[in-house]
Amino acid sequence: MKSIDCESEPGHGTIFKIYLPAIPAQKAISKATTATTLPKRGTQTLLLVEDEKALRVMIGRILTKSGYTVLTACDGEEALDLYKREPGKISLVILDLMMPNMGGQKCLEEILKIDTRAKVLIATGVSVENELSELAIKTGAKGSIHKPYDIGVLLTAVRDILDRD
Questions:
Q1: Rounded to 5 degrees, what angle do the CA atoms 88, 84, 135 make?
Q2: In this predicted model, what pLDDT tens digit does every residue of 47-64 receive, in sequence order?
Q3: Could you report the per-residue pLDDT of 139-159, keeping only the tens digit for each?
Q4: What does the buried/exposed string (b/e) look like for 58-92 if buried means 16 or more CB atoms within 10 Å of the residue's CB?
């Protein structure tokens, strides 16, 4: 039986209680469905450029748990400073396109001026950014990924780009 109870009291807030049926033991999730096929773990250093702090922290943790060393920046200017300070150390930049100060497209162009072989994965959110994503690919980005992130897709995209020559 499924149900939702709601209790509300002025000045004390609201409590929602959600009741879902328990999963019988014989219908428990099998090992096959929990063993999601993820790409091999990495050891490289990644630069994650994302203006939304919560997303930057969450994705950074996921990448770190996947074996990567993760540097983070909140905008294009900070990303460029980090990229210049760590020459040859950063294997891949995951770059949000829409950010305050210096946006992703300008940051991409500046990174490619420093290193024409830089590997950059573009992150896009809203559908308007699809045109920007296409421009970024034409400029030299190695791929793009859409938000909200599917962790398996993100990790696969990262691994695919890193494994290219």
A1: 90
A2: 999 999 999 999 999 999
A3: 888 998 988 888 999 999 999
A4: ebbebbeebebebbbbbbbbbbbebbeeeeeebbb
What is the β-pairing status of strands 13-19 and 3-9? Answer: antiparallel
What is the length of the chain? 165
Task: Give the pTM.
Answer: 0.75
Q: Which residues contact 77 (CB under 8 A, 6 or more apart)?
A: 101, 102, 107
The full DSSP string for the chain is --EEEEEEETTTEEEEEEE-PPPPGGGSPPHHHHS---PPP--SEEEEE-S-HHHHHHHHHHHHHTT-EEEEESSHHHHHHHHHHSTTTEEEEEEESS-SSS-HHHHHHHHHHH-TT--EEEEE-STTHHHHHHHHHHHT--EEEESSPPHHHHHHHHHHHHH--
Complete edge-to-edge strand list for the sheet that includes strand 45-49? 69-73, 45-49, 90-96, 120-124, 143-146
